[in-house]
Amino acid sequence: MLERVKTGIPGFDEILYGGIPKRNVVLLSGGPGTGKTIFGQQYLWNGLQLGEPGIYVALEEHPVQVRLNMKQFGWDVKNYEREGTFAIIDAFTGGIGEAAKREKYVVRNPGDIDQLIGVLRQAIRETGAVRVVVDSVSTIYLTRPVIARDVVLKLKKVLSGMGTTSILISQVSVTERGFGGPGVEHAADGIVRLDLDEYSGELYRSLIVWKMRGTKHSMRRHPFEITDKGIIVYHNKVFKGGPGGAKIIELR
Fold this sequence. Notes:
Rossmann fold; alpha/beta; globular; two-stranded antiparallel sheet
């Protein structure tokens, strides 16, 4: 029987026929403003509601800002941090600043993948984390794209080996059709692509699961929206965009 981790994101688990296979490392790819960070934070928060500890690796934002952003959706993690079932790894400040000095897990040199992995291992052991989100993995190899695949493989070895089911957020430009670095799509167990496209002067959000090892999944592009309670995926609708404009078709 395949063990799955339910994301708890409305509509998304249906697309995966029940959730992400346990220990999978999923690349969540998309351009700016597509909702990648919200998706990752919602995944962690829903895990906490199920009694599953989690870790958020902040590579692009101050941990204080991460907590504030989560709280806007009603996801207040402070009690879970106090209990030791949730942790934010500060891989953004390098330990510089008064607020950073109060952080429990700090990566002094965020560009050093081995140092990051060392702090990550410690945090997983101490929290008992079963869900991890790295936001964003692209930051580590942005200036050195040739190491992208190696970075993902190193993280995968640790994350999967320690029993976590993880999301690596990957940045791509608006026009880029790839997933955020040469070879990373082969290193990841799953790829989910979030898009924000303009048709006839209007923006549309949609997502597609490109691959997911260990399970069948929808092969269609589905519309989604970001509400004040997080992301909702319309698994019963298909998004179609083309030269004639955008269409959302209801599945029967």
